[in-house]
Fold:
Amino acid sequence: MTWDAIVVGAGPGGAATGILLAERGLRVLVLDRAKFPRPKICGEYLSPEASRVLDRLGVLKAVEDAGAVRLRGMVITAPDGTRLTGTYPTSAPWRGYRDHALAIPRLVFDRILTDRLRDTAADFHERVRVTDVIADGDRLVGVESVDAAGRARSFRAPLVIAADGRNSVIAHRLGLVSRHPLQRVALMTYASGLEGLADRGEIFVDPPAYSIANPVTPAVANLSLVLPLAHATRYRGRLDAFFDERVRQVRHLAARFPGLSREAPVQALGPLAYRVALPRVGGVMLVGDAAGFYDPFTGEGMFTALRSAELAAETAIAALGASDCSVPRLAAYERARRDAFRGKQRVTRALQFVIGRRWAANRAARLFERRAGLLDLLMGVIGDFVPPRALIHPRTLAALLRPS
Ligand SMILES: Cc1cc2nc3c(=O)[nH]c(=O)nc-3n(C[C@H](O)[C@H](O)[C@H](O)COP(=O)(O)OP(=O)(O)OC[C@H]3O[C@@H](n4cnc5c(N)ncnc54)[C@H](O)[C@@H]3O)c2cc1C
Structure:
């Protein structure tokens, strides 16, 4: 069997890439080391704009029918207790594909995507772990793998798409991964008793930590706590107790949810941020977390994976059609990705400055409290459908500077 492309990983990035390539008649092989459904540490929030890609992939209805909770916005509580209620803009000039975000357990969401992948002509193999790349001169021509029975096998194709998430074996083998100075860890669990959490997620900013609660079912919320890695390392093996104690210390969270009760063991992931350089060889593209990760505060990881899958598929189809998977040809994808995500990346970095400092977080909260329209605009940027430049529009800046 010969393939046009091998996709490594069947999370949101890999499954979406596999679906899009198969729909265009390409012979695609998708490999994942896991058997789905498989767990994934995540806040489980899907931005309103993610719905557009999900609809294109033919899974939006299945996701909605599976009980995804609709979120009209987020409530953000500042360190001084200021509560901001942000709502996604629903009128011109900015409207999302949907007026709401979605919250859905990854066990359910990733299963829906992989079921859809199975419905296409793509060849999808689970429990096959990619262990190495196969290179020929200045390009990749395939991957080495091992299956659940320990059998080693090589697969060859003119294009390898690395969608194998954080710790991407392909990005590591190509020497592209480096450390990020932002050293944070995320602790995540499910909790009940979060009364009043219905159609909005809640964020509690408490520098240097923050906590996010997303209602993933009517009864249970995804509860995560992000804090400096150094605070958690000594508690390895005692994560449940550490989490329970630290959540109680997050200002305003315990008071807001007195009946909070943890319903699952705590899982940890860190360091969260890492950098991935652009490939210097042909025959390879990086999609989703395999291309780098910063911080989950603004919840765009799955949208980024889905959108980068769309962009990668576009370039892949053109490159394979021209029998040219060289670095210059595939650079079209890197340019498209940069253009698509650069503005939001600037906003997320600015927000990191704010949420990392108590005085800045309190000052920003008071500013947004006076300007509800501005907060909703920010929600639209976070929701991936308002262009970040809208925040620096002269009219917005004038509103910011006007005394209240
Ligand atoms: C604490 C935390 C909270 C987050 N919250 C949110 C949120 O609320 N909303 C949001 O949009 N994003 C969130 N994210 C980010 C989001 O989880 C990721 O960005 C998203 O899962 C990326 O999708 P992906 O397909 O690139 O990678 P993944 O979902 O990680 O999928 C990668 C796949 O590759 C497979 N794989 C790995 N190695 C190999 C190998 N060697 N061989 C074969 N297969 C392999 C894995 O089994 C996996 O199925 C959060 C992240 C963290 C850490």
In short: Residues 263 and 355 are 28 Å apart (CA to CA). The chain has 13 helices and 21 strands. The mean pLDDT is 94. The domain at 5-69+103-179+273-345 is CATH 3.50.50.60 (FAD/NAD(P)-binding domain).
